[in-house]
């Protein structure tokens, strides 16, 4: 019987008196302050990384455009050099030099002509 009495005493708990002058119930937020700080720092780090990536892409694009301008300039210089070498070859022909010499009144003296070997 004592065992039965203990079970009933254990099952029946005293009622908690209700306090009529209750304090207002405070609603808790979804996140704690620590979580908010972590989320805010994560977002700030993410935004900083995104800005760094965009800045690096901008620098890369500017460098690429500068390289393309320099390559275009090099191509133009190569074209000019080719045109000038063709012009030198045209102007240095034997017939043209001989015609220019006659025009200036020079005569061919066989005894003063020296042949330079090699070229």
UniProtKB/TrEMBL annotation:
Keyword terms of this UniProt record: Cell cycle, Cell division, Cell membrane, Membrane, Transmembrane, Transmembrane helix
Biological process according to GO: FtsZ-dependent cytokinesis
Name of the protein this chain belongs to: Cell division protein FtsL
InterPro entries: Cell_div_FtsL, FtsL/DivIC
Highest taxon in the source lineage: Bacteria
Record has Cell cycle as a keyword: yes
Residues annotated as transmembrane: 37-54
Origin species: Planococcus glaciei
Family of this protein: Belongs to the FtsL family.
Record's keyword annotation contains Phosphoprotein: no
């Amino acid at each position: 019987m004592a065992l039965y009495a203990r079970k009933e005493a254990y099952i029946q708990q005293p009622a908690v008196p209700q306090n009529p002058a209750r304090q207002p119930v405070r609603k808790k937020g979804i996140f704690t302050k620590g979580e908010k700080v972590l989320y805010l720092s994560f977002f700030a780090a993410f935004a900083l990384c995104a800005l760094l990536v965009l800045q690096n892409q901008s620098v890369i694009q500017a460098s690429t455009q500068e390289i393309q301008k320099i390559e275009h300039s090099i191509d133009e210089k190569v074209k000019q050099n080719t045109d000038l070498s063709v012009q030198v070859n045209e102007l240095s022909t034997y017939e043209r030099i001989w015609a220019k010499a006659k025009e200036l009144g020079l005569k061919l003296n066989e005894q003063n002509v020296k042949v330079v070997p090699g070229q």
